[in-house]
């Protein structure tokens, strides 16, 4: 693929080799006031240009400028303007003077809105912005301007009138400096079923419940529980004592608790200064836990210790993400391919806590076996997404946000309309825990969430308390395979797939 940069009449062509799986068309990015101008459809924007990746800083000498903090000269913003893209989205073009060098960068509007500092929970820093504000065709800057001290860019958004502020130094830090290695092209095969299939036939999304005492006291009960987790990805245990201990006992039946930055276990209870949104009364969108780990937790057990009758809301939700992704692939093969090839930054950056944390991991939302095209892993955790990494692949950012919003709309349809058809109502399981319940599920396969809650009588004391523990996914798989030799005659235990990235 040839990539051409046009700057004041000078053209630089950069040749890049692509794998023979496919090729992307040539494109031209213009980095000066001589940008090709098309129809202006938005009064707050200027010209229409070819879609950029976000932030490509270029000097007038056509050479990348170093972002090394030690060598960085003073930076001052000179101009900013909104531009409509040929794809129908929008970008914000920022011009700066760095020392004696004039530089220009283009930032996709969806990328900017997704990284607005105001869209984070105050104490945990987790993102809270709804996906309905991110779609490229509706994420429109109505007004853009530079602060008087020339240190920040301000963007007012047409959808809700919110004003976002971006420091020039922050934009500098996240600006792309050079052409990246081409992203691999993933074939959008649409006739393969997902890795989580069931020999019994169509998937039943009902939540199976078992007696806790039977699971912990008999091998047959233990097998029924483990196989329900393998088959359905979730299982509710009822009748456990309403005091700490059952979650640990269940973990020890498989192997042992998986320690994390939250300890060997954790308490989900509303706090004044939560280090995680879960430790508040806010609603939790459907997500997976700790995806910023190289190996996120496998099973999660949440034991209900207290859930007072005066609490309104707080119901739990579960959704089989791997099964939904198979539907998504059939409906939107191009979006599916985009989510396979664009790594996302997942992060937990939180210094204001007893044990400061700075964890970052990049992975695509979907991983497939390149030989069979079978889904091996899906990752979804909007609260823990960082800025999309530094790509320069023409329309990659625009394509990503279109695919991202299409999937988000299938997971949690917006109340004000839909981008894609919503899933059947039965796809999401909603239930209210009672003291003594233990909800157990596969964190690699299932999304979990929670409705917001409050006290009907105005009490401020904690009224909803869950005790949680994680278990490693491979140790669960091992335990299930060992027990299947005794309890599932004729079944080949080696074929069990638990969304743990295993290719087969």
Explain what the structure shows.
With 504 residues, the protein is of the alpha+beta class. It has nine helices and 27 strands. The strands form eight sheets. A six-stranded mixed β-sheet has the order 12-13-24-16-27-14. Strand 10 and strand 11 form a beta hairpin. Helix 4 packs across helix 9, helix 6 packs across helix 7 and helix 7 packs across helix 8. It starts with a strand and ends in a 17-residue tail after the last helix. The N terminus is likely disordered.
Low-confidence stretches: 1-71, 187-202, 415-426
For the biggest sheet, the summary is: 6 strands, mixed
| Biggest sheet: strand arrangement | 12-13-24-16-27-14
The span between the termini is: 33 Å
Number of distinct beta strands: 27
Mean pLDDT: 77
Strand content: 25-35%
Helix fraction, binned, reads: 10-25%
Q: In a few lines, what is going on in this structure?
A:
Helix content is 18%, strand content 29%. With 504 residues, the chain is an alpha+beta fold.
Defining key terms:
504 residues; alpha+beta; 6-stranded mixed beta sheet; 5-stranded mixed beta sheet; 29% strand; globular; disordered N terminus
Per-chain topology:
Elements: E1 2-7, E2 10-15, E3 27-30, E4 48-49, E5 58-59, E6 75-85, E7 90-98, E8 101-108, H1 109-114, E9 141-146, E10 152-157, E11 163-167, H2 168-174, E12 209-211, H3 212-217, H4 219-232, E13 234-238, H5 246-254, E14 266-269, E15 284-287, E16 299-307, E17 311-313, E18 316-320, H6 321-331, H7 333-341, E19 343-350, E20 357-364, E21 366-368, E22 375-378, H8 396-411, E23 428-431, E24 438-442, E25 446-450, E26 453-455, E27 464-471, H9 473-487
Parallel strand pairs: 1-3, 4-6, 12-13
Antiparallel strand pairs: 1-2, 5-8, 6-7, 7-8, 9-10, 10-11, 13-24, 14-27, 15-25, 16-24, 16-27, 17-26, 18-23, 18-25, 19-20, 21-22
Helix pairs in contact: 4-9, 6-7, 7-8
């Amino acid at each position: 693929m040839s990539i051409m940069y046009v700057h004041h009449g000078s053209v630089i062509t950069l040749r890049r080799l692509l794998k023979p799986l496919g090729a992307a068309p040539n494109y031209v990015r213009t980095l000066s006031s001589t940008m090709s101008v098309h129809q202006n459809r938005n009064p707050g924007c200027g010209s229409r240009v070819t879609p950029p990746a976000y932030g490509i800083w270029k000097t007038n000498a056509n050479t990348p400028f170093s972002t090394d903090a030690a060598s960085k000269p003073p930076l001052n913003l000179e101009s900013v303007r909104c531009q409509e893209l040929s794809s129908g989205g929008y970008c914000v073009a920022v011009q700066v003077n760095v020392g004696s060098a004039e530089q220009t960068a283009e930032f996709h509007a969806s990328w900017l809105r997704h990284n607005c500092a105001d869209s984070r929970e105050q104490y945990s820093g987790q993102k809270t912005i709804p996906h309905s504000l991110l779609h490229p065709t509706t994420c429109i800057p109505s007004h853009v301007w530079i602060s008087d001290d020339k240190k920040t860019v301000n963007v007012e958004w047409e959808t809700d009138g919110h004003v976002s502020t971006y420091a020039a130094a922050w934009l500098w830090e996240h600006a792309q400096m050079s052409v990246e290695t081409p992203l691999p092209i993933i074939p959008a095969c649409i006739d393969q079923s997902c890795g989580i299939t069931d020999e019994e036939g169509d998937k039943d999304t009902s939540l199976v419940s078992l007696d806790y005492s039977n699971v912990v006291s008999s091998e047959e009960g233990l097998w029924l529980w483990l196989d329900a987790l393998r088959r359905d990805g979730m299982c509710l245990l009822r009748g456990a004592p309403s005091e700490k201990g059952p979650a640990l006992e269940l973990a020890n039946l498989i192997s042992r608790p998986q320690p994390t930055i939250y300890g060997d276990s954790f308490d989900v209870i509303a706090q004044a200064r939560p280090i995680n949104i879960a430790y508040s009364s806010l609603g939790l969108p459907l997500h997976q836990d700790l995806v910023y780990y190289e190996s996120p937790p496998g099973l999660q057990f949440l034991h209900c210790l207290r859930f007072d009758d005066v609490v309104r809301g707080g119901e739990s939700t579960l959704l089989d993400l791997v099964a939904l992704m198979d539907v998504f692939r059939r409906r939107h093969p191009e979006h599916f391919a985009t989510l396979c090839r664009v790594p996302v930054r997942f992060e937990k950056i939180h210094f204001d806590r007893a044990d400061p944390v700075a964890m970052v991991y990049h992975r695509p939302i979907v991983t497939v076996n390149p030989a069979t095209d079978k889904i091996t892993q899906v990752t979804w955790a909007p609260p823990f997404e960082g800025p999309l990494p530094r790509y320069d692949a023409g329309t990659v950012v625009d394509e990503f946000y279109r695919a991202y919003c299409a999937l988000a709309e299938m997971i949690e349809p917006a109340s004000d309309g839909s981008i894609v058809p919503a899933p059947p109502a039965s796809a999401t399981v909603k239930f209210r825990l009672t003291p003594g319940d233990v909800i157990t599920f596969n964190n690699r396969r299932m999304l979990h969430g929670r409705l917001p809650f409050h006290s009907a009588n105005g009490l401020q004391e904690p009224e909803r308390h869950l005790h949680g523990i994680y278990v490693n996914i491979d140790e669960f798989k091992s335990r299930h395979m060992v027990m299947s030799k005794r309890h599932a005659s004729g079944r080949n235990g080696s074929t069990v797939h638990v969304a743990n990235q295993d290719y087969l």
